[in-house]
Write a structure and sequence with these properties.
The chain is built from 5 helices and 5 strands, in the order αβαβαβαββα. It has 178 residues and is α+β, with helices and mostly antiparallel strands. The protein has a domain of 83 residues. The protein has a 5-stranded mixed beta sheet with strand order 2-4-5-1-3, with helices on both faces. The longest helix has 40 residues. The two termini are 30 Å apart.
């Protein structure tokens, strides 16, 4: 009785849980493998505000002129950061990729004033675009868990067929012997 209950309800429940875990593991593991190849991660993006918008932002906060922001001269930035800030000054408010080294990423994350050509521009990190970091074993473990889950879910019908086969074997043996 306990064995039938276990094979009818317990194993399929565990199988369903394993199947769900396997789907999550397989999707995350597979996505982490292909993400760099399809370009869904990589360079961070910054947004540069015009000098006028920067001044409005600073005036709109407090009588003292807004929060105290770090200031960087454009010459202090890395070449990649400089190119991105220059491109952002040309197209204010748009997200611009920083293609290369980004040593001032923490400052961009907090928001920073970059002084270029005598004017301050508010620069902030729009997106970091980090790749998903998961263990390389997640994909094969997810697939294995999914396969075990499928076996668990299919246990009741397989068990019922086994019982029917066993009954037919016992039934055939009784009619031949009787």
């Amino acid at each position: 009785m306990v064995r039938e209950w276990l094979l009818t309800y317990g194993v399929p429940f565990v199988g369903s849980v394993l199947l769900a875990i396997g789907i999550v593991g397989g999707v995350m593991g597979g996505y982490a493998l292909v993400q760099p190849a399809i370009g869904f991660c990589g360079d961070p993006q910054i947004t540069v505000y015009s000098a006028e918008d920067t001044e409005r932002l600073r005036e709109g906060h407090t009588p003292a002129g807004g929060p105290e922001l770090d200031r960087l001269r454009i010459a202090e930035l890395s070449p990649a950061e400089r190119r991105a800030v220059r491109a952002g000054i040309e197209a204010p408010g748009e997200s611009i990729s920083v293609e290369g080294a980004t040593p001032h990423r923490a400052a961009f994350r907090r928001g920073v004033l970059v002084v270029a050509d005598g004017q301050a521009h508010y620069v902030t990190l729009a997106t970091e675009n980090d790749c998903t970091q998961v263990s390389p074993l997640l994909l094969p473990l997810g697939i294995a868990a999914g396969l075990l889950g499928i076996v668990g879910v299919l246990t009741p019908p397989i068990y019922r067929r086994y019982l029917a086969f066993e009954r037919s074997q016992h039934g055939d043996g009784e009619s031949e012997g009787g």
